[in-house]
Amino acid sequence: MPAGADLRSGVQLPAGTRTGTRAGLAIVAFLCFAVAIPLVLRATSEARYSDAEFLIRYTTLLYSAFRISAILWKDPVRPVAGVFWMFVYICLGVVPLAQLSTGASNILAVQVDDATLHTTTAVVLLGCLSFDLAYHLRISRDIGRPLQLRNLRSMDALRIFASAALVGGLAYVAQVGGIGVFFTSRQEAGQALDQLSPDSGQAVRAIVSAFGSVTCLVGLVFYVHALRVLRSSLNLLDAALIVALVVVNLVINNPISNSRYWSLAVIFGLVMPLIASRKSLFNLAVIGGIVAAIFLFPLSDITRRAAGAGAMVQSDSVWRMISTKDYDQFSMLANTIGFVRDEGLTWGNQFLGALLFWVPRVIWPSKPLDSGVEVGMWMSSVNVNLSSPLWAEAWINFGVAGVVVTFVALGLLCRRLDSGFGAKALSAGSVGYLGVSIFSGYMFILLRGSLLQSMGRLMILALAIAYLSGTVKRKPGEST
Questions:
Q1: Residue 58: which domain range?
Q2: Of 86, 188, 235, 420, which sits with the fewest C-beta atoms within 10 Å of its C-beta?
Q3: Burial tier of 11 (Cβ tally within 10 Å: 0-12, 13-18, 19+)
Q4: Is residue 92 in a domain?
């Protein structure tokens, strides 16, 4: 078979040809992401700034573009690391550079001086370096080993879980006021959710919304796996559950009433199991995701406000558009650094509040507020429902040490999870890759923050996956 054989024929291209194709794609992607976009920003600059200021912000973009290119080049599919570097490139690389180039920004960026903004870039790079070193250095032999392969506990367990998820999803729909609420706007859906147990703070609302949205997503993702691998084991009840899960997910997890980051998590959770080990499709998802995030993502702001109050995006430049919309992670990290400078570190108090998010405020009156809320109050912002990226969460708790330890731990975790997405973990019957798929999408939310707001869904996600994948599949020759 010639080297250029069509993949649709069912014949694999030679390894050298596939490697050469990936290398070419990686080089082109690097030239576009690390060279072309910064040159366009530089050539169309609307504001005055020094070369040093441009280069300082360019470092994050360059570093993350290089890491993305390496992921595209190398053979393994690495969904968790891929999401990490996509987030860094877009939110902490392109957007800050676009804000510098256009001189435009959202209102959150006015709280700090230039020196603090330079410190912000340094903190971002410190987190990236810590993540990168931990991800690639094998501190122990166990870190690089794939996760143990796990089977679906049983089809009966999946049926029970899916039924419970549907009941929880329908209860969630009923409690917030019916199906129509989910097709109005994010603002109205949020206001309806706020009416649930208002005296208990965010704890009850977070758990109710998390159970309704996450369990239905997990149930559907696991059924996608069952359709592909265990089709002969499915019956009429399974068909009914699959249809019901699709309908409920379309209602609860639609992009109109949900945050754009949760919509990304849902898309990745559903798409990655379909991509599996197909590296070409994974590369397409990474590149397409970056392009969509820059050119299409800000347009979804139209669904944010109630009764059509979301103003149409009016901008003569895509760079001005992403500079002034909700990519506020760099600005909020800078504001958090300013907050710590004035108010001091919280010495783990914010981490504790996130860890114990499930404790109602009526029981724990001194429970820490969301980190974004704390910084928003310091800023005297009218809207305190602000993001708090993971860099900011680490900084507000323990400063430099917090950033290093947090991102080293994240790097080790991501390496461990990505190693579980290898060829062996994708073998027939194994479901471990499903959890990695859903978590990779959820990384968008963890990185954006705040940590407190992300913990409810993360807890439900972890419990759901643990329940459905409880049987360990022993490797041949492995001791019991």
A1: 13-136
A2: 235
A3: exposed
A4: yes
